[in-house]
Design a protein that fits this description.
The chain is of the alpha+beta class. The chain is built from 10 helices and 5 strands. Strands 2-3-1-4-5 form a 5-stranded mixed β-sheet, with helices on both faces. Strand 4, helix 10 and strand 5 form a beta-alpha-beta unit.
Length: 292
Amino acid sequence: MEENNLERSGTEKVLKLLEKQPRGLLLAVALLILIGISILDYLSGLEITFSFFYLFPIALVAWLLGRKEGIFLSVASALTWTLVNQLFREEATRLLVSYWNAGAHFGFFLIVTLLVSELRLLLEKERSLARTDFLTGALNRRAFYETSKLEILRAKRTNHPFSIIYFDIDAFKAVNDIQGHDAGDAVLRLVTETVSSNIRSFDTVGRLGGDEFAILLPETNHIVAKSIAPRLQKVLLEKMRENGYPVTFSMGAITFLTPPEDVDEMLKLADRTLYQVKNAGKNAILYAENTA
């Protein structure tokens, strides 16, 4: 079992490395592999068939580049196979048979392309579902932990600050009790949608549980954090009023000039800041800096 895990890990590393390469380069490499296979197919003679090996560049392209590119390579492979097997080595073969064989191979290659590309889409969907909260689409707690861990490591390496805004929805329970859980779910989705559309592309919002959210702000000092938090609170309050939801937002914004030891410490400090806001009357923002 350990050997299988190592093999799977090695394969994943290779695929991730290939995914980082330019698409044009990957397609060119696949075409070169196809040419190499066709040459070997031609040199091997009639007794040995290389049809199976044509699937390698096809599957590679379908996985890395997508369905359209896979179909393109399926066509190229079918034509190449026909050229090698019908024109070069079977000149006497009837034209109709040549067409049939080419079509059969293209159909086989196409099926593989569709299966591989669909498998990749399903895998990506599964990965996404494993990282996102099913109700709101925000990162779930586990994914937010992973993202925050990477940011803490980056901050320790670069000595650059980062910030986090930890907030919850005041009177959220009243929405569930009075308007129903469907309304409560709608509030949570609206909060996520509003925050996601009003933060920077490299910021991250996560739902950590119930009505608690956190926003990770990389490369963000206290000055920037103090400009982001009130703007978010304002737009959130406006959205809630527009939709008739009687809720407000308490926020604790903390900037880490010195990186915390781990994510648990980061969230503990952020939660402590939010707790002070809740005790002071809610619907407010408290800012803090961590220099220890």
